[in-house]
Queue: 3 jobs
Job 1
Amino acid sequence: MPAELDVRDAKRADIRTLVDLYTAAGLDTRGPHDETEMRMNWDRMHTAAPGVRVFIFSLAGRPIGTYTLFVLPLLAHSGAPEAIVEDVAVHPEAQGQGIGRRMMEHARALAREAGCYKLALSSNQKRVEAHAFYERLGFERHGFSFGVTP
């Protein structure tokens, strides 16, 4: 696992970097990632969920991974929040080097610090290799995820 892996909070000015990472990693999308639309989504996301954080991981100054972390306050579970990981992307040239593992360890540590009762993520049903990866990291299949187009 690369020791020189750097992590930082992404800023709105990093949209081009995020577009490049999402595209290279083949992150599920309804079409090409559009920078203008992503800037609007960034603004909307940070307005609706002020605590949301997007991270960029770099190796030797080159961005090679990203994920988004939501920490959501809840009423149940004795008021303990839930952490949700979304938009996980590792550049294909950096896959297999422990980057994804480091990213999920980072997310888990932040969720623990925030007092979350669980860290959750979802993965497209077709991404069998990703499922095996998450299970190797200690994630367990938990219930069912349902979706519908509104």
Job 2
Amino acid sequence: MFVSVVMITYNHSLYIKQAIESILSQVTDFEFELIISNDKSTDDTDLVIRETLAQNPNAHKAKYINHETNLGMMPNFVSALSNATGKYIALCEGDDYWCDDNKLQIQADFLENNPDFSICFSNVGLLTSSGMKEDNRKKKIPEVSTIKELAQNNFIHTPSVLYRNHLIKEFPKYFTEAPIGDYFLHMLNAQHGKIKYIDKVLAVYRIHDASYWSSKKDKEQRAIIINFLNTLKTFFDDDIQKIINRQIQKIQSKDMSFFEKKLFKLKSFFYR
């Protein structure tokens, strides 16, 4: 398989139809698969997935895994990744969606033509109850970056990313326990090459109050992030550790403008 799209979901009955259809509508000159991993949702997510696939002419591209027991966020993600066979991996959670039918083609073409790059990501739309806006409209996201820039803060939105599948069966043990899965994944991938930013909205990240992360108070969020970063840094060399230490110091200083605007405005993989 050329591209595997990994979609983890839990209680996304209101959003999962749009998510699935946005993947299966991709126009490509290569084969791709969609891996949907439902972590025993307690709402109608399973029913909506089955109905959506039954009605979609491209449903043969989808592999649906409906777990009989609840694995938890990160074990479900690792399980989904273990079923992905593609040369490249794309991510889209069950409450996000893609808004450009050429997303995969655009990103795959870039990575195919630029072997020194490991990750390609794009601008996204942020969808809230009050409407849509571009996330990176006023941010200075570099067109080309490396792991050193990424170690300063996570500027990659999960549904926008496509990466080379370097990590088959190579995840550190801590990965399944990490409270922030996407940043850890991007850092691991960034060890293998440069990072390309496409300044075009190719995906939509949905913000809603039901997410795990949004339910946490600021103090609790900071504590989770600091503990995570202290563990994360141990997987990298001294230079990267120093950069992550500076990130920790900024969070500890309670500079909330930095925290809100530059660090983890993403939901990461907190989907419940």
Job 3
Amino acid sequence: MSRGIAMFLPAWNEAENLPVVVGQAVTYLSSRGEPFVVLIIDDGSSDNTAQVAATLKAANPGYVEVIQHSSNRGYGAALRTGFREGLRTGFDWVGFCDADGQFDPSDIGKLVDTAEATHSDIALGYRKDRADSLGRCLMGRAWRSLSHAVLGYHAIDVDCGFKAFRRDALLNIERQLISNHATISPEILVRADHAGLTIAEVGLDHHPRSFGKQSGADFHVVFASLIGLITVRHNVGPEPGTERKAA
């Protein structure tokens, strides 16, 4: 294990957003003065995400890497690939930020620094003011209530696409993760609970999406996520959550 941060960006059809997000991530991580890598996880995009990612890698040799799925496998599958590749770096922190431009990648610092200050294993971001449509916010609340009822975890914002993990903590749960779609977020929490990991929650700014479209409301994604909840419930069962520390 070596000091440093592996930050990965799950991306599906985010060609227009990637240059800004990657640029912000590289600029901030460079300023910390410790080793880092930014991993772009291209989940079988149908736009020119692959070409944009390749250009960003060439422009940032040694700091940006690209991992591609040959076909679209889902958000959970992209996260699982990112976790695996992040652990391979040997850095002591692995974090991820959605590549849609709705978060400031420099907030990885808030997550890591808060976790270190509170001696927590995992830092979960939560959106202080969610910058999405009313319909999407209502769907998010319904999903949060349902997934909490089925899996029994506790979190302010389970689906916030910004989290950071100590390497040793992630090693405890990474190989157990099975979800390919939205169920990955509550699954991470219930497996962390079962492993006895400690979690800090950190409020983050959330911004409107400038380019591209969200896919979480697509019927096949919703259906697969519901099936995923049942699968994870059967696999691990619910367990009372550990106490959370909001920061």
